[in-house]
Known about the structure:
The protein is of the alpha/beta class. It is 37% helix and 18% strand. β4 (149-155), α7 and β5 (181-188) form a beta-alpha-beta unit.
Amino acid sequence: xxxxxxxxxxxxxxxxQIIFIGRTFEEYMKMFNLTEEEMKGKSILDCPGGACSxxxxxxxxxxxxxxxxxxxxxxxxxxxxKGLQDIEHTMNQMEQVQDKYRWDDYGSIHGLKxxxxxxxxxxxxxxxxxxxxxxxxxxxxxxxxxxxxDLTLSAHFLFTYADRLDADFHLQTILELLRVxxxxxxxxxxxxxxxxxxxxxxxxxxxxxxxxxxxSEEKSxxxxxxxxxxxxxxxxxx
Length: 238
């Protein structure tokens, strides 16, 4: 699919077609092996940010944080209602596939549901206070300046949906995320929805290394989906 086709398709994306669910700040810290010291004084982009609470909470630790997502073109009240509905629907679906997940951190589906509700509650409250911190965008294009952010985080989008997003889209999106990033990009997880490592990972890493990135696959301290416990870390060397 070409960029023009992607833009056209995204422009017609109705709210009903968007899944507005997010992770909590604490989940992000584990997924990306983040420390408080790493965030302090840094400009950080969360993309796609969805209904995650990371951006709102990161500011409490001295970060200059921002989130970007296609969903942010919709009204906040609509997103809140849609997100809460999506949580209910997702939890009902998970009843049938509980064995594909590890429940150590949540205890049960009810525990997971409470975490997802906490994430969207924090996110929506912050969107109302700081709407300019939530920027509508359609990947693989971002409305930010070159190297605007010290650190960019991307969770549960690339690699996760490898069955729907082709290799070219993955490459172009990662190059765009790197364009707006001064120093480092982290993507979690490196596995698709079946728990298998992204099939084009080695080719992708070779291309990025040729462009001057230091690439590593690092085990994360977070694992909910079985087999999805590794992040891809890209550091610009020039």
